[in-house]
Amino acid sequence: MRIFEALESQVRGYIRSFPTIFATSKGAILTDEYGKNYIDFFAGAGTLNYGHNNDRISKAMIEYIQSDGIIHGLDMATTAKRNFLEKFSSTILEPRNMDYKIQFTGPTGTNAVESALKLARTVKGRSNVVSFTNGYHGLSMGALAVTGNTFYRDEAHISRSNVSFMPFENYFGDSVDSLACLRKMIEDTSSGLDLPAAVIVETIQAEGGINVASAEWLKGLSDLCREFDILLIIDDIQVGNGRTGSFFSFEFADIKPDIITLSKAIGGGLPMAVVLMRPDLDQWKPGEHTGTFRGNNLAFVACTEALSYWDNNALSESIQYKGNLMYEGLDVIRTTWPELEATIRGRGMIWGLDIPERGMAREITQKCFEKGLVMELAGAEKQVLKLLPPLVIEEELLKEGLAIIAESVKEVLKEREIA
């Protein structure tokens, strides 16, 4: 690890949690250069929904490269882009009766968020945007302004203007109606809340601690936005692309967002980000918002192949089945060790085990890593074990990973008792 310590910036993060040198990967398994296997409950922070080195995706990319296909094309027309647009329209948009224009932004999620915010403000002619407590939308300037975590929001590198934070569902518990708070703030001309151009929200706050919005809350938020002529932006970067069981995470709520941001798994493992917008909102002037790598043709190829998983309901049904296994595994932990005072939150194949005692969740993930499981933390205090395996993980591997978590919890509790 010396070369990384000597040459790589101190900003490196995950390498500190997973201190080994990974060499190969396949499906839901990472293998380090010493030959040790690790079950992956991290999946590139949700990028690898279809697993590491997916055979179908790899084959499509190899064939494209060997045919001298266009790799970099800015926003020029290419066969790879055409094939992606046709596949995305026929497989994702048309069956859901969704009418959206597609904007290709820079390659990461924060680029999509920046584009969405800029577009919303341009269209509405208003600068304020409402975001929610514990929200995470990226770390470039505009996206960072709508991100809640203090760790990222240092005064030295953020403009806090033109963003108003409101409470997410259940932020104050069941007794407080957070949408009623938002309505009151909008209606009261002395509240200090300028009428926003847009509201940006995650249906499940992944980095924020696996905080799950209900269908009723999302419907209420959508209705509120329409009533006051506010654009609703759904950030589906981490929990879209099938993570919750349906392709879009908001489908269960039967809402139609004005703007949707997608990245991470949309590229089939490669950098890619898009903004979906209602056609009437597509008011960009040509070249008004650009990016050198907005045309990642190899990602178009990978995504086009990945979208074939959505030609039928098999993957969706598998996600629901495996998601139930994940919940059941966590529930066994919660009930076996009530002293954890743990709570479980999630949907589909994103689940969190919230352990309130400071530092315990980190000790458990470290123990998991020693035993061959890669898993990250979430939440404001990093108190949530965040389970995010590839959607295509084999059932036995999934169960093995859950068993490692249980064994790690048992050992950490025993060590704490002895200490």
Folded structure, characterized:
The chain has helices at 2-7, 14-17, 43-46, 55-66, 79-93, 109-124, 141-145, 178-187, 215-227, 297-306, 314-336, 360-370, 395-418, and strands at residues 22-26, 29-32, 37-40, 101-104, 129-132, 163-166, 198-201, 204-205, 211-212, 231-235, 259-262, 274-277, 343-347, 350-354, 373-374, 376-378, 384-387. It is α/β, with parallel strands linked by helices. It folds into two domains: 1-54 and 313-418, Aspartate Aminotransferase, domain 1 (Alpha-Beta Complex), CATH 3.90.1150.10; 57-308, Type I PLP-dependent aspartate aminotransferase-like (Major domain) (Aspartate Aminotransferase, domain 2, 3-Layer(aba) Sandwich), CATH 3.40.640. The strands form four sheets. The chain has a seven-stranded mixed sheet. The radius of gyration is 21 Å and the shape is globular. The mean pLDDT is 95.
